[in-house]
Amino acid sequence: MTTDASPSPAHAAAPADPSIDELEAQERRLVLPRFTYEDAWALGSLLVDLARERNAPVAIDIRRGPQQLFHAALPGSTPDNDAWIDRKRRVVERYAHSSYLVGARFRAKGTTFEASSRLDPDHYAAHGGAFPLTVEGAGVIGTVTVSGLPQLEDHTMVVKALEHFKGTL
């Protein structure tokens, strides 16, 4: 089974883990003024471009509520990536925070999400790559998720895309 935590041969050195404060700051900084169907296409297309530049074997998913607005599977991705997307997305939907931040908060308490959340790990994964889509005045309205790289790289790809995307609005 493909795991989002496995090393990627195309990506040697992984960046240092961000602190909980840094992860929380990302979420505060990446609040959008709006999020339309056209915005979902633009953000998804940006993520595809970023992934292609890196030859990243990822799947990408964007949802507003329960509706899938964008999905792409790039070469090298597998059906397992879609299963990871679903599991990470459910964490964001439940906690209203990035899947990476949720996992980091459990680790900071000296435990793991799997051991302490009391949620079925077949349905929930607090691994990096799913991020809340938060709109000013509305709160969390959806998710954007990448799966296929080590979890910090999935998370970082989403954050970079959201930073660039927000700058275009």
Describe the protein's architecture and organization:
- With 169 residues, the protein is α+β, with helices and mostly antiparallel strands.
- It has six helices and five strands.
- The protein has a five-stranded mixed β-sheet with strand order 1-4-5-2-3.
- Helix 2 packs across helix 6 (151-168).
- The radius of gyration is 15 Å and the shape is globular.
- The model is unreliable at 5-12 (pLDDT under 50).
Quick rundown:
This protein is α+β, with helices and mostly antiparallel strands and 169 residues long. The protein has helices at 20-29, 37-53, 79-95, 99-108, 113-116, 151-168; strands spanning 31-32, 59-64, 67-73, 130-135, 139-147.
Name some characteristics of this structure.
single chain; 169 residues; alpha+beta; five-stranded mixed β-sheet; 5 strands
Q: Helix tally?
A: 6
> What is the N-to-C succession of helices and strands?
HEHEEHHHEEH
Proportion in β-strands: 15-25%
Judged by helices, strands and strand pairing, the structural class is alpha+beta
The helicity comes to 40-55%
Question: Could you give the count of β-strands?
Answer: 5
Ends: how far apart? 39 Å
Large-scale geometry = globular
* Low-confidence runs of at least 5 consecutive residues: 5-12
Rg from Cα: 15 Å
Question: Main beta sheet, described?
Answer: 5 strands, mixed
Output the strand order for the largest sheet.
1-4-5-2-3
Mean pLDDT: 93
SSE topology sketch:
Elements: H1 20-29, E1 31-32, H2 37-53, E2 59-64, E3 67-73, H3 79-95, H4 99-108, H5 113-116, E4 130-135, E5 139-147, H6 151-168
Parallel strand pairs: 1-4
Antiparallel strand pairs: 2-3, 2-5, 4-5
Helix pairs in contact: 2-6
